[in-house]
Amino acid sequence: MPEFMLQSTFWVSVLQIIAIDILLGGDNAVVIALACRKLPVHQRNKGIAWGVFGAIGLRVVLIFFALQLLALPFLKVVGAILLVWIGIKLLQHEEDDGHANVHGSTSLVGAIKTIVVADAVMSVDNVIAVAGAAKGDLNLVIFGIVISIPIIVWGSKLVLRLMDRFPAVITLGAGLLGWIAGDMIVSDVVLKPYLAGMPSWLHYLSAALGALLVIVAGSWLAGRKKEETSTLVDLTEVAVAGKTPKGK
């Protein structure tokens, strides 16, 4: 076993990457199913396998470039802000499934192309989050993605049911994104010199504050949106009742 796999920090980061891929990549399984639904039965497994392989390859390339970009000044700060936004958005109820533009293809090559392109478009948030969790280590990226993609594809239904049954899983996932964001900020190349003499627990404090920010802000916005929706429904019912003829 390679030496880097014997370090506890490696496995902590791997678990973070797997959690991120499952939370932010659940729709990938739906995309694969939609892209392959018009294929002949004997070609569907091939379409899924090659589509997943292409998606993994493209994801690794995108994250490789993201890792290089995060070494530039202030980009980790920008990435952290994006992660906070993604985490808050994760806690909001999405009414639109976002799959209306994913069309099935009758050819194997067409289905594979659809899967790869759709995955690239949908994976921007995933790429940023995984790059932050990997902390510059491409081995982590490859290892984490190779493990998590099959979980998403073949275990997505179980994962989605788990999320529906236990909403706390979503909250914990959003908090994880905030944790990574808080840790990213203090590791930016511009801020590092100023934090050189600071105690080591500063990273944990910053990460904890990031997680708290996402959970509190996301929950508050979700609650406010729910109240506004409920008020709108009540007003609609009153308006409809007012137009109803008496005696009906």
Automatic annotation (TrEMBL):
Task: State where the protein is found.
Answer: Membrane
Pfam families, from UniProt?
TerC (PF03741)
Q: What keywords appear on the UniProt entry?
A: Membrane, Transmembrane, Transmembrane helix
Q: How does it sit in the membrane?
A: Multi-pass membrane protein
Q: Which residues cross the membrane?
A: 12-36, 48-67, 140-159, 166-186, 201-222
Cellular component GO terms held in the UniProt record? membrane
Q: Does the keyword Membrane apply?
A: yes
Q: What is its main location?
A: membrane
Q: Record's family? A: Belongs to the TerC family.
Q: Any idea what this protein is called?
A: TerC family protein
Give the organism the record lists. Noviherbaspirillum sedimenti
